[in-house]
């Protein structure tokens, strides 16, 4: 973060001055200098192909300011957030927040979704037996996880002025087979990543959750009694292992087996438990 403080702050102020049509003071003393840009020009500049030879000629300083500010939001979101929080006037903070929410956050929302999908695809070989995908439900990005009959989701909410406002992870309604203390730990890790200084944080969080989900079920087989990985009532996975054949059963299934059979032997190898 230190390498982005100091000289970068005046640059960000100047960019915002240009992009807000001069309504944000270009310098801390409140004076305004330089060209201005309308919101229409900002939107056009962001939609334009920056590799086009006519790019700069068409929009001039407006296009360069929009592209540069977008780049700063993508690669150094914490630095831009710090600049915004340190603006001395409430009016200026509101102005920058509205600018980001209206013109830049929609672009960044799509960029975060694409980056998250790319990260999951790049690490697919480490997500054993897990299907992971990212869907857009504005203003949320949703990680969908599947393993056979198991389904789970993680929703990440991107606020209107993202990344000036931090993204937040919403606790899943249910996570079959995962103990609640472990889910709480995952949520704590997700919040730490989302509050960090690195770019493309949504993809990092979703990859972390997908890996954790895969590891949690790595090597887990169906309960030989109910033929399910997750118990329908308790939402737990098989943990009680036979000391002889090593097959694992749901505690509830095993208890029911002992009760109905009037025996305390393994349903598979018939050896004493």
From TrEMBL:
Subcellular location: Cytoplasm, Cytosol
Listed Pfam families: LTN1_E3_ligase_6th (PF22999), UBC_like (PF23009), zf-RING_2 (PF13639)
GO molecular function: ribosomal large subunit binding; ubiquitin protein ligase activity; zinc ion binding
Pathway: Protein modification; protein ubiquitination
Key words of the record: Cytoplasm, Metal-binding, Repeat, Signal, Transferase, Ubl conjugation pathway, Zinc, Zinc-finger
InterPro entries documented for this protein: LTN1/Rkr1 (IPR039795), LTN1_E3_ligase_6th (IPR054477), LTN1_UBC (IPR054478), RING-CH-C4HC3_LTN1 (IPR039804), Znf_RING (IPR001841), Znf_RING/FYVE/PHD (IPR013083)
Biological role stated in the UniProt entry: E3 ubiquitin-protein ligase. Component of the ribosome quality control complex (RQC), a ribosome-associated complex that mediates ubiquitination and extraction of incompletely synthesized nascent chains for proteasomal degradation.
Homology family: Belongs to the LTN1 family.
Name of this protein: E3 ubiquitin-protein ligase listerin
Species this protein is from: Polarella glacialis
Lineage: Eukaryota, Sar, Alveolata, Dinophyceae, Suessiales
């Amino acid at each position: 973060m230190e390498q982005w403080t100091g000289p970068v702050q005046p640059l960000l102020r100047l960019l915002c001055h240009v992009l807000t049509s001069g309504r944000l003071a270009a310098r801390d003393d409140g004076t305004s200098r330089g060209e201005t840009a309308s919101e229409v020009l900002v939107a056009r500049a962001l939609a334009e192909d920056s590799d086009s030879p006519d790019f700069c000629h068409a929009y001039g300083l407006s296009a360069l300011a929009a592209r540069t500010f977008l780049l700063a939001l993508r690669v150094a979101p914490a630095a831009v957030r710090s600049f915004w929080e340190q603006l001395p006037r409430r009016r200026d903070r509101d102005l920058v927040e509205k600018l980001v929410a209206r013109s830049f956050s929609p672009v960044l929302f799509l960029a975060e979704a694409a980056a998250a999908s790319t990260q999951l695809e790049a690490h697919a070989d480490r997500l054993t037996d897990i299907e992971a995908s990212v869907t857009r439900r504005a203003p949320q990005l949703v990680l969908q996880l599947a393993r056979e009959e198991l389904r789970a989701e993680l929703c990440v909410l991107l606020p209107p002025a993202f990344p000036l406002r931090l993204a937040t992870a919403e606790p899943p309604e249910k996570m079959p087979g995962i103990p609640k203390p472990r889910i709480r730990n995952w949520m704590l890790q997700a919040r730490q990543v989302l509050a960090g200084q690195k770019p493309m944080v949504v993809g990092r969080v979703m990859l972390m959750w997908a890996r954790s989900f895969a590891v949690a079920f790595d090597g887990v087989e169906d309960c030989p009694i109910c033929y399910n990985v997750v118990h329908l009532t308790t939402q737990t996975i098989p943990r009680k292992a036979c000391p002889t054949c090593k097959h694992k059963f749901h505690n509830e299934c095993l208890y029911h087996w002992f009760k109905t059979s009037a025996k305390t032997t393994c349903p598979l190898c018939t050896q004493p438990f």
